[in-house]
Design a protein that fits this description.
This protein is of the alpha+beta class. The protein is built from four helices and nine strands. A hairpin with an 8-residue loop joins β3 and β4. It is globular, with a radius of gyration of 18 Å. The chain binds zinc ion. The site of zinc ion (ZN) has 10 residues, from loops.
Length: 185
Amino acid sequence: MEESLKQVYVPTVATPGGEKTQLGVFSKEQDAWDVMRAFLGKAGATDVVHGNITVWEIDFVGEEGSFVLSAFDRNNCPVCDELTFWVEGDEERARCYYPRCGAWIEQNAYDPSRWDCGWPAANWNKRAEDYQHAYKGLVAMRGQSNSAGMTNRMSSREAWLGEKDRERRNIQQKKFDSMAEDITE
Ligand SMILES: [Zn+2]
C-alpha cells in the first residue's frame, strides 16, 4: 500500500522587518533542508536575517497543526567577519556561507559530548566540549591566521565546496541551487 502524505515541510525566510518569503512546500524533510541551505548559500545578497523550516500536519483540524522544526539566525562570522554566519536552532550547529571562508561548528555525530569546529579555507579543525568553546576555537583560529598571514592564502570557492560540503550535497542540490537563484534574483 502506498504511504499517504501526513505532513509537509515549509522552509521560510524573513527580513528584519518580518517580511516573509516561502521557499516551497515539500513532502520530504531532506528536500526542505536542501532548499534552505541552498538559499543560505546565496543569502549574502539579500537582507534576510532569519529562516525556519516548519512542519505542517495535513488534514489537521485546530490551531496546533504546525511546529517549527529548526530555525536559522544570521550573525557575523567569528573568522571572516562577514554577515554570513548562520546559527541553527539553539546553537545546535553553525556555518559561514561566505565562499572563501566556510567556518563551521557542529556536534560530533558519533560522540554527543564532543563538538567540532573548522575552517576549511585554512584546512583547520578543532574539537571542543560545547558550542561556546567551539565558537572560541574559531575566534582563536582567526587570531592565529592573522598573525600567520593566512587570510591571503584562503582557498578558492571550488576547493571549499569540495571539502566539508560535498558529503552533504546530493544530486538534487543543483536543482535547488537554481531554484534559490530564482528566488534571490
Ligand atoms: Zn566566515
